[in-house]
From TrEMBL:
Keywords from the UniProt entry: Membrane, Transmembrane, Transmembrane helix
Presence of the UniProt keyword Transmembrane helix in the record: yes
Presence of keyword Methyltransferase: no
Stored InterPro entries: DUF2062 (IPR018639)
Originating organism: Geoalkalibacter ferrihydriticus DSM 17813
Protein's name according to its UniProt entry: DUF2062 domain-containing protein
Listed PANTHER family: SLL0298 PROTEIN
Pfam families per the UniProt record, alphabetical: DUF2062
Transmembrane feature ranges: 32-56, 63-84, 115-139
All copies of domain DUF2062, residue ranges: 9-144
Amino acid sequence: MWQRLALIRQFKLNFIRLLRARGTADEIAKGLALGVFIGMTPTFGVQMIIAVFVAILLRENKIAAAAGVWVTNPFTAPFIYALGYETGRLLLGMDRVALVREFNYEAVKRFGWDLFLPLTVGGIVLGVLCGVITYALTVRAIPVVKTWRVPRWPRPRRRKDK
């Protein structure tokens, strides 16, 4: 039974470790908000590198920034990018992009631009919104969580073989 709970236990431990990280609540919340902002942008694959680099430049919490990027993971990315595309498309007043009928350089370039521009604009808008919400929730949650006493997780008993 314990093997099935190992993933939940690991998530719990990493969450507690993140919230108990060294630094003030403001520093950790800023790093996490920065990571969430970058996680909403269409930079899938290099988001963690960008988040840590920007956290170094802004002197924010690098671990929290790297953790915040994981808001975009293989399970949530389709939903986040679809919402970002639709938000950007509506803000820019663009029609939905249609698949390329002719496969030539100009058609593919136009398709890429019609897809990338609304995705970027929508990602930035959603990133700012989610980053502000993340900061507000995290800066209030960290002082409370740092006072929690987390009980030890029961360990599986080893069998004695004769």
